[in-house]
């Protein structure tokens, strides 16, 4: 009786083990890590798709309209560009952009698009972790305890990006030609 019970237990256990071990499962696909060049190219594509040049690149006028200045690509608001005067009362309820789209005035005050080039006046000294924190948590310069990034920077949308995509953008930005440009500090709203 004991031997029969042991045999039965062994047979049942074997069937359960084989049944639970589904060999027809699809094997997980392993994706090879991107090469540095592939990561940079992916970052370049993302920068173009999400429109970083729209606000972070000074423009030049062509016969087809304004385009990013290739010599100042992603260098932020030009430190030498003065904003025109405006009547704060007449623009209440509006958001104003300068002609380059690198500065914006709204209820938050005046904000200037950052220099995203690898120069020390841009993101040259930033770590990948700082860039992730800026893009995903909206922290100024990616620093703990710093203020939130100001509009129109849509960091809330970018916070939904995969870390690998943000890292690819960072790799692309670090591959650009550095442009020395100290972007002005934001200006609080007029009271």
From TrEMBL:
It comes from the Bacteria. One of its GO terms (molecular function) is electron transfer activity. Residues 38-177 form the Cytochrome c domain. Keywords: Heme, Iron, Metal-binding. Coiled coil: none annotated. PANTHER family: BLL4482 PROTEIN (PTHR35008:SF4), BLL4482 PROTEIN-RELATED (PTHR35008). This is Diheme cytochrome c-553. It comes from Flavobacterium suncheonense GH29-5 = DSM 17707.
């Amino acid at each position: 009786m004991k031997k029969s019970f042991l045999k039965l237990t062994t047979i049942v256990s074997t069937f359960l083990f084989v049944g639970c071990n589904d060999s027809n499962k699809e094997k997980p696909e392993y994706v090879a890590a991107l090469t540095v060049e592939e990561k940079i190219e992916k970052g370049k594509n993302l920068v173009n798709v999400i429109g970083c040049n729209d606000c972070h690149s000074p423009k030049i006028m062509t016969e087809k309209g304004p385009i990013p200045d290739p010599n100042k690509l992603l260098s932020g608001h030009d430190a030498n560009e003065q904003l025109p005067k405006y009547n704060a009362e007449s623009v209440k309820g509006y958001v104003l952009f300068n002609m380059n789209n690198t500065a914006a005035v709204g209820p938050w005050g005046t904000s200037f698009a950052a220099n995203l080039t690898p120069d020390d006046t841009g993101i040259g000294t930033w770590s990948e972790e700082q860039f992730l924190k800026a893009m995903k948590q909206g922290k100024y310069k990616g620093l703990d305890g710093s203020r939130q990034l100001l509009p129109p920077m849509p960091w809330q949308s970018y916070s939904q990006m995969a870390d690998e995509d943000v890292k690819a953008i960072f790799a692309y930005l670090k591959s650009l030609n550095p442009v020395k440009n100290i972007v002005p500090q934001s200006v609080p709203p007029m009271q």
